[in-house]
Amino acid sequence: MQILHLDSSALGTASASRELTRTIVDTLALHHPRARVTHVDLDADPLPHLTERSLAKADPAEAARAERTLEDFLAADLLVIGAPMYNFGIPSTLKAWIDRVTVAGRTFRYTANGPEGLARGKRAILAISQGGVHAPGGPSDFQQRYLEFVLGFLGITDVHAVRAGGLALSAEHRERAMAEALAEARRVAGLPFALDRAA
Ligand SMILES: Cc1cc2nc3c(=O)[nH]c(=O)nc-3n(C[C@H](O)[C@H](O)[C@H](O)COP(=O)(O)O)c2cc1C
């Protein structure tokens, strides 16, 4: 099994979503000792914004990195995505990654019957962190709902969300929310994995 572990928090060692993705990946490694993990830190090593020059592949180094990013995505059986809420959506570093993996003809295509995702057969676990409280699918949720939508567009519908909300409300809220989310992270990462092709 190939795991792609993405982090996008800008809060370094204080990050909640990084603690959750680490716990998810560590638990997966216990259950799948032969799994291979690729870790991409989109904050430490951000992808450039997608621009006209990117689409024209004007910079060979940027084009090569974009292709590697796409290949890492296509090779993954399981995505573990650290997705903090920043200004009601996801960090722009994570959006920059989505811009590199949402590629017509590679990961989706348009047909006479509408769009079709080409990245089927993958599973995703989202580590959702929020300072406030935003119900999934509620009016201020442009984070989890967006990620589930765009992953579904690419053909990935087996998506679990591990949620830690209300982290900025008080120290007690944070402690309780993180304890619950870490327990959920271990539970979700321990679920049997239907795609366990190569352990
Ligand atoms: C730049 C920035 C923007 C934020 N915007 C929001 C927001 O719109 N809504 C919210 O509930 N929390 C917001 N927060 C709080 C974060 O969601 C919270 O700190 C969470 O723990 C971030 O995850 P992380 O610790 O993994 O970075 C914001 C935090 C930062 C640093």
Distinct small molecules: flavin mononucleotide
- What is the radius of gyration? 17 Å
Output the strand order for the largest sheet: 2-1-3-6-7
CATH architectural designation: 3-Layer(aba) Sandwich
Q: Largest sheet, if any?
A: 5 strands, parallel
CATH superfamily: Flavodoxin domain
The mean pLDDT is 96
Helix content range? 25-40%
Strand-and-helix sequence, N→C? EHEHHEHEEEHEH
- Rounded to the nearest angstrom, the distance between the terminal CA atoms is 6 Å
As a percent range, the share of strand residues is 15-25%
Name of the top-level CATH class: Alpha Beta
The overall strand count is: 7
Secondary structure category? alpha/beta
Low-confidence stretches: none
Summarize the structure.
The protein is an alpha/beta fold and about 200 residues long.
Written account of the structure:
This protein has 199 residues and is of the alpha/beta class. The chain has one domain: 3-Layer(aba) Sandwich (Rossmann fold), CATH 3.40.50.360. Helices cover 38% and strands 21% of the residues. The chain has six helices and seven strands; from the N terminus they run βαβααβαβββαβα. The strands form two sheets. Strands 2-1-3-6-7 form a five-stranded parallel β-sheet, sandwiched between helices. Strands 4-5 form a two-stranded antiparallel sheet. Helix 1 runs parallel beside helix 6. The structure holds flavin mononucleotide. Flavin mononucleotide binds next to helix 1.
